[in-house]
User: Fold RNase H type-1 domain-containing protein from Hibiscus sabdariffa.
Amino acid sequence: MKALLGLLRSLFWLNDVHDDWNFYMEGWWQNPISILTAIKPLSKNLWCPSITGWLKFNIGAAVKGPKVGCGGVLRDDSGSIRALFSGPVEGADMDVARILAISYALELFCEINWGGIFGLLVELDSQVVLNWITKPNHRPWKWWHKLVSVDLLIKRAGMVEFKIVHQQCNALAFGLARDGASRDSFFKAWW
Assistant:
């Protein structure tokens, strides 16, 4: 019963965070998992699925007043949501929040034990952060330890690639990040 309530809570939370998603409510009580795997974006112009055999983690960071948050959503090659996270980032700027979002995404991917089974594409909206991850000689000394831990998670996850996308392509991740700035604790879920 707790699991069902958790799924229902996640569903309504997703619906609240992202108004332009289509939730298929038919058959909810017979098969609650079906609604979560049927969630798809209404517009095909903003988000596109990964290639077959790969999962895609869209990550984002957002400022809400004086607070910063990060969030991410993991989808399979059909666009179905498989995991998400949202939470506050203490004492950080947007770039550090993006680094932490990547770190949380990789940790969650490894925690689910999908490394080695699927490739992972991580989409973000900052060329600066992407350069810090892919080009160690561009890294600021101040954030070196956080980026080294990302390096270790990349090795653990297996096949990982990064891609820059416009923030509109990461609308749900951005909404989760904005919500994360208001949260008191970190939230994550997968199915």
